[in-house]
Amino acid sequence: MTSHDVVVVGGGGAGLRAAIAIVQADPRLNVAIVSKVYPMRSHTVSAEGGAAAVIAADDSLDEHAYDTVSGSDWLCDQDAVEAFVAEAPGELLQLEHWGCPWSRMPDGEVAVRAFGGMKKMRTWFAADKTGFHLLHTLFQTSLQYEQITRYDEWYVTRLLVDENRVYGVVAIELATGRIQAVTGRAVVLCTGGCGRVFPFTTNGNIKTGDGMALAYRAGAPLKDMEFIQYHPTGLPFTGILITEAARAEGGWLLNKDGYRYLQDYDLGTPSPTPVLRSMELGPRDRVSQAFVHEQEKGRTVDTPYGPVVYLDLRHLGAKVIDTKLPFVRELCLQYERIDPVHELIPVRPVQHYMMGGVHTDIDGATGLPGLYAAGEVACVSINGANRLGSNSLPELLVFGRRAGIAAAEFAATGNTDPGPAVRAQAADERRRLERDLLARRDGRERIADIRTEMQHTMEGSAGIYRDAASLVKGADKLRELRERFGKATVEDASRTFNTELVAALELEFMLDVAETMVACALCRQESRGAHQRTDFRGRDDERFLTHSLVFLDRAGSPRVEYLPVTITRWPPAERVYGR
Amino acid sequence: MPDTITLQVARYRPDTDAAPTMQEYVVPLRQEWAVLDGLNYIKDQLDGTLSFRWSCRMGICGSCGMTVDGDPALTCGTFLADYAPGPVRVEPLANFPVIRDLVVGIDDFMRKLPKVKPWLVREDEPGVADVEFLQTPPQLDEYQQYSMCINCMLCYAACPVYAIEPDFLGPAAIALAQRYNLDSRDQGAHQRMDVLATAEGVWACTYVGECTSACPKGVDPAGAIQRYKLTAATRTLRSFLPRGER
């Protein structure tokens, strides 16, 4: 057992920002970063388009807040949004002072670009590798703090909880197979999203909802799990993201007839150059939903990897593409063998982001004392029913820092150390891993087969459009898969870097997360943002201007409750784009 | 194009194997499939005990570097069809200790990286809270390519010096030091000199240039090293001059 003042789980953008905030808030504290990958492998690295924060002279915090609130279909908490927009510029400037290579104007000031659902140009960018640069800047900056101890490639399997307080984690050191408790007076979950619950996702292999399931099992509720973002422009087969910045720079979405079809879906009228909050710069939920309607009308193009439409960048020319969108060109050339300077890019909607997550307050605190969460794993919520592109990077900075500071205060004051019950729990967990999983070689089914079935179940029951019948069927199937998981085999008995054991544990986490998604989606009998019920077409503010909170009940099933949305200055209204 | 291709994959489990062995697997050959897709097919359909790292499968997280038919490569960006009819050999990255199968230990790099202080050093003032340091596009161009390093370790696998001189800082660490040295906002170049201008730093490099050819992101570590040798030599010469003429 090793112990620290604060244990941060996850070494991506939120985790690194939290860790730095902790040691800056109180240099006497020592922090562990426990991550299943080296920090620079974390999925923040894949974010492309940019990070929103008000800096331009013609912009205002109120406008950023209104865009975020209307983008969320009024399901966000407006006090959280107000704090978010106010602190985002300071966070991006802090990244600048730490060396982030933001793209610049000719005079040397930071440049901003347009983004979907944003009425002003306020998205800072580092070409189209913003997440990569942000992550590496944070990682490299973190190296100078001796108070930060990293546990690279340690996989957390359980939170240690005693008398309703969190005292640390149990983790497997992958290189050796050693199972060990890492205790702390506070734990900050920064494990990111859960896109691998779906078959077609932009998310990396590591995005398996670990932190969400850890919190849920420990008794902390998850929030708004029915709100799953599909990004409109993924490459077929791989699901690789083509950034929204491609449309912000002037790209068009065309159906099989070469027609800019978004004009048929109340998103505005086409113009040759981009218009903010209009057409291709509409919000992701509406643009992805429009694709489904085009498909139903037979106006998409069939490929071996599903129906597609086209993203047309040809009119932008090589110079704009090479300076503003070099990664888009690189990805298209490598993975589709097409050159966007001369050819159309085939794209289709792809699961991209989880609006829901561990329920936290504005300081990242969950309901469980000692447990905090920030970044995609958390739901504060600033994203409500639909996140705007380029809000997630500033979110992980603003709330990573807030959660770090709150955890530091808790660790400095609430100074009880873990007792015998915590040690016993750690021993239990070691036995579970060794006896139940490492020794399971007589099963009949492969982990990978159950995972694949889960992914297709989720796409079929909880995709862009849902209804009660599909969701009930999905819930039944997930119960069956959970039973089958109990009898699945783990072929690999080695202690050394056992990726099959990790895959089994990840699948168990994903099954939990999938169940909460389906349960929340079934209970919400309305359509709002990214949650579209074909059997309940409209938004219903009377009944559902409220967050879903999902708890794990004693029988091991999800139980859904509701929590009012916080409204400060923007009463619910119609979402208007392009008119 | 044939329907299948054979992958010859290096296997090594330290708990049971005395030395690495090669194991053959037949996987579907499809136009779109990267070598990584072939490995995942093995893992999911044929043999769950094969271990390798991967995540983003879009060439940015740097996890999936391996040796493919003798060359260091990101397996997510290397395509099976280019090796048809096969077989294709997949081995762990060279010059690193093998932990298991295709997984290598990179602790050495992780220990060396902080030594070059790969963060922005400010000696006068830390920066005003509400104003950015100005940096023009040409100033950004000065260091931008060195900031593209994804730490995938292909350059270390390709480097003949690192192969025989494990104390060598290595291409990526030096390129990242230069990334900050050349950043107009940074004031830490002289602090990094103690580590860079040494026998284990740039002077170990014999300018073979394999690192630059191996880099999947267009970084030119060999160029960074050569450029720094000039800087270091000039500084050394200057140090012999009387104070007023430096």
Automatic annotation (TrEMBL), chain A:
Residues 5-393 form the FAD-dependent oxidoreductase 2 FAD-binding domain. GO terms for biological process: anaerobic respiration; electron transport chain. It catalyses: a menaquinone + succinate = a menaquinol + fumarate; a quinone + succinate = fumarate + a quinol. The keyword Nucleotide-binding applies. Its main location: membrane. Pfam families: FAD_binding_2 (PF00890), Succ_DH_flav_C (PF02910). FAD binds at residues 10-15, 35-50, 210, 376, 392-393. It is found in: Cell membrane. InterPro entries: FAD-dep_OxRdtase_2_FAD-bd, FAD/NAD-bd_sf, FRD_SDH_FAD_BS, Fum_R/Succ_DH_flav-like_C_sf, Fum_Rdtase/Succ_DH_flav-like_C, Fum_red_fp, SdhA/FrdA/AprA, Succ_DH/fumarate_Rdtase_cat_sf. Part of an enzyme complex containing four subunits: a flavoprotein (FrdA), an iron-sulfur protein (FrdB), and two hydrophobic anchor proteins (FrdC and FrdD). Belongs to the FAD-dependent oxidoreductase 2 family. FRD/SDH subfamily. This is Fumarate reductase flavoprotein subunit. It comes from Pseudonocardia bannensis. The gene is frdA.
UniProtKB/TrEMBL annotation, chain B:
Pathway: Carbohydrate metabolism; tricarboxylic acid cycle. The keyword Cell cycle does not apply. It catalyses: a menaquinone + succinate = a menaquinol + fumarate. Residues 3-96 form the 2Fe-2S ferredoxin-type domain. Its EC number is 1.3.5.1. Transmembrane segments: none annotated. Belongs to the succinate dehydrogenase/fumarate reductase iron-sulfur protein family. PANTHER family: SUCCINATE DEHYDROGENASE [UBIQUINONE] IRON-SULFUR SUBUNIT, MITOCHONDRIAL, SUCCINATE DEHYDROGENASE IRON-SULFUR PROTEIN. This is Fumarate reductase iron-sulfur subunit.
